[in-house]
């Protein structure tokens, strides 16, 4: 696939945004399959505009100060965040658990917002962090409402052949699970992403099944076991209220 210079620059920004630590120019070359000279040319422009900064001692690259302004603008002015934040806070207050808003972006599950529980919870989701996964209620609720042409390659990559189960069988079983989630209207998981954590996730869908995000509630399995039906209902209602807010903006 051929990418324009603008797309190459955006690929570099996306790579830095998803990276857990600063990245070298040579690592970008390997990840993006482009010449080193091309990477440096784009980095110089991105540094000039403050989107990227270079560590003075290591020479590694990381997001620059302009990224902070963009993130702040998203939090303060995004139509989605303005509609979702009050409902996340209300859901967390009603249940006493952590409530998050997540979306699917270029093969990753991204946490857009998170209202944390007053109780300690070991959860992998962190605001602004992307995860490459098909596991967990949030991922399944999103995958269930994405186009099949987009989902199938992800499943094939994530569910390779094993000695006891061929890859195509695993993909078919997972696809059937996604169909059940579509029919039911929510996804539930336990111990899939974090041991001891239960989760439920309901999609925010606009007309013509346009997927915007998913609302997720996460809690320790022991506490959740006493409230499963209630919390599933509360999460679905929160997703629907966000949908209504978006429709009437």
Automatic annotation (TrEMBL):
Record GO terms (molecular function): DNA binding; DNA-binding transcription factor activity
Keyword check for Transcription: yes
HTH iclR-type domain boundaries: 3-65
Keyword set, alphabetical order: DNA-binding, Transcription, Transcription regulation
Secreted found in the keyword field: no
InterPro entries: ArsR-like_HTH (IPR011991), GAF-like_dom_sf (IPR029016), HTH_MetabolicPath_Reg (IPR050707), Tscrpt_reg_IclR_C (IPR014757), Tscrpt_reg_IclR_N (IPR005471), WH-like_DNA-bd_sf (IPR036388), WH_DNA-bd_sf (IPR036390)
Residues in IclR-ED domain copies: 66-249
SUPFAM superfamilies, per database record: GAF domain-like, Winged helix' DNA-binding domain
GO BP: negative regulation of DNA-templated transcription
Record Pfam families: HTH_IclR (PF09339), IclR_C (PF01614)
Stored Gene3D superfamilies: 3.30.450.40, Winged helix-like DNA-binding domain superfamily/Winged helix DNA-binding domain
Organism domain of life: Bacteria
Protein name, as recorded: IclR family transcriptional regulator
């Amino acid at each position: 696939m051929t990418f324009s210079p603008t797309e190459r620059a955006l690929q570099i920004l996306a790579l830095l945004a998803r990276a857990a630590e600063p990245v070298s120019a040579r690592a970008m070359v390997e990840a993006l399959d482009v010449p080193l000279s091309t990477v440096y040319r784009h980095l110089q422009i991105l540094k000039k505009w403050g989107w990227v900064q270079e560590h003075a001692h290591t020479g590694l690259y990381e997001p620059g100060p302009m990224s902070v302004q963009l993130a702040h603008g998203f939090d303060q002015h995004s139509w989605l965040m303005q509609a979702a934040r009050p409902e996340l806070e209300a859901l967390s207050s009603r249940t006493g658990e952590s409530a998050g808003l997540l979306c699917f972006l270029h093969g990753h599950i991204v946490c857009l917002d998170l209202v944390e529980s007053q109780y300690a919870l070991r959860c992998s989701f962190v605001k602004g962090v992307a995860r490459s996964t098909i596991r967990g209620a949030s991922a399944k609720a999103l995958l269930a409402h994405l186009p099949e042409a987009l989902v199938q390659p992800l499943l094939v990559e994530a569910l390779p052949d094993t000695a006891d189960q061929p890859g195509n069988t695993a993909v078919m079983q997972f696809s059937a699970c996604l169909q059940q989630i579509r029919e039911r209207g929510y996804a539930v998981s336990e111990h899939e992403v974090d041991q001891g954590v239960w989760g439920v996730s309901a999609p925010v869908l606009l007309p013509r099944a346009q997927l915007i995000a998913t609302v997720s509630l996460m809690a320790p399995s022991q506490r959740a076991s006493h409230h499963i039906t209630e919390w599933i209902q509360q999460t679905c209602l929160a997703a629907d209220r966000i949908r209504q807010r978006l429709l009437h903006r």
